[in-house]
Specification:
The protein contains two helices and two strands. The protein is mainly alpha-helical and 187 residues long. The chain has one domain. The chain has a two-stranded antiparallel ribbon with strand order 1-2. The protein is elongated and about 120 Å long.
Amino acid sequence: MSALPYTFYPLPSRRSAFTLIEMLTTVAILIIVLGLMVSLAREVRYRSAEVLTKELLTHLDELTQSFKQRKGRLPNLEMLLPANVTQADANEAKVRAAARLNNEALVNELKGEIVRSGLLQHDRTKGGGFCDLPISLYDGRLLADAWGNPIVFMPNQHPVIGMAPIRSGEEEQAFFFFSPGPDGRYL
């Protein structure tokens, strides 16, 4: 018997695993996609908070207009800062405390209007506060913007904070509300 000229040797079986390059590429792609999703989510949250705060400010404006028409005066509140205070004299911590007091006094003044307008729900399980705003914005004592900062009522202009926009049909400077926004700074 003669030897066969070609002998068949089985090739070593290749393992079916991923190489390091394939795994690193996949991880890099996943990190990029995740980064884009987080960035988009942050932008969506910021925009929705902005819309929610504008909606709250609109509600407050309507309630205050109703209060003014019914009682013939604006809510009786102290200014956030005395008129003679300059920006250098103003302390952000004191302004924040004054904003909270201003807000609580505003809520107390407007409670009758809130109930009268039907915006207040008495059943706290259905949201409490303003019916179409989350309870986190109004807890019965304090009105906050979407970032958790108290909304401030300004019966007239202030040199440090700014001045109210003149409404159509009004000649005098009107009251206004403002929110410190996402940075939480009133000044």
